[in-house]
Amino acid sequence: MERRLHPVTPLRRAWAPVAVIAGWAVHDPNQAQEQLTKLATTTLLLALAVAVTGGALYGFLTWWFTHFAVTDTELRIRTGLLFRRTAHIRLDRLQAVDVTQPLLARVAGVTKLKLDVIGTDKKDELAYLGEDEARVLRAELLARAAGFAPETAHEVGEAPVRQLLHVPAGKLAVSLVLTGATWGTLAAALVVPSLLWWATHSVWTVLATALPLLGAAGASSLGRFVSEYDWTVGESPDGLRIDHGLLDRTHETVPPGRVQTVRIVEPLLWRRRGWVRVELDVAGSANSVLVPVAPREVAESMIARVLPGVTVPTPLSRPPRRAGWCVPFWWRGYGLAVTDTVFVARHGLLRRSLSLVPHAKVQSVRLEQGPWARFKRLADVHVDTGANKTVTARLRDADEAAELLESQADRSRTGRREARPDRWMA
Description:
Elements: H1 9-13, H2 15-27, H3 29-37, H4 41-64, E1 67-70, E2 74-79, E3 85-90, E4 94-101, H5 103-108, E5 110-117, E6 124-130, H6 131-145, H7 150-156, E7 162-167, H8 169-177, H9 180-200, H10 203-228, E8 231-236, E9 239-244, E10 249-254, E11 259-267, E12 275-282, E13 289-295, H11 296-306, E14 335-338, E15 342-347, E16 351-358, E17 362-368, H12 371-375, E18 378-385, E19 390-397, H13 398-418
Helix pairs in contact: 2-3, 2-4, 6-7, 8-10, 9-10
């Protein structure tokens, strides 16, 4: 049986025609002002009434023509007012259902569901549903994706969650203050416009430069604080649950077996406190942060949840000293380790980044040598993962790199054979 979205949904879509008019005015403000001054007050009010009515009608019609239904094998979503679109989402290809609540949606008591499907980069979504309906539908979809029969899936209910980690707001704020990118963008926002004003004395040039830089500074500091506020990681049978957000609340799921790469990022000013940030590459998902900031031992315990049986190796072996002829001084930031379970590569001196790739997730291995590196008997080994990302062990001895190329291919084949099945609620 086909169902409709929540009745407040038309309000979300009614702004589209108004946005088109606003875009025209911003694109050519002089012409827009000239055209508006030619109109009488009555004409302006009439045009405004037509725009509001048109927006409301557009929102209502797009809501009216949007339906969704859960069948025995798929979730079907039909959308489109003029151009019809029907999405057939196979339930056995569904790997996560994320819950998002922007600020106004929280006030209205509605929720958006985003659907992560294997093999697709773009998420289909159901926006908006009532909170209770969204919770029940999400639980049913995950149960069906886990293999429960249609007649019993609705009885499974929402999987229980056990909290593993909560990041205090104070620690998050201090970590942002101690991040070099925050100060770098803020300094650029202050210095560059001042130099442009000294050189050009043009207000428009200064504004055109300052506003994007201030926006970048705000996104790297205040934006991250708002987005990563109240960060909580919990464990449930359908994967790790990540909840966060001050204004817009987001509830994401990291499905088991889909993590391709884990990165431990360690900015320079965090090292004295022993803090790190953990990022993820997940196949077919935009989820990219597991822990925004935490002590290293806590972060490693979270990594053990997404990569069972994996421990972070220490120390890593550096490239030979002659690598300094290829990358002076910074070669000391490179490192490599290979264990029975993961391929590990490190880069960066000021901002260290340690990448861990399970052998079972390696899709291909490549060896590359430029002319100068070949003269110095050095080579890079690239490991490609299922998330279309590459981890590189740079400036290894050429003989070591050739041996690593062969042995890593064998480890990957063995790892895939022995990998645990990617099954929920198992």
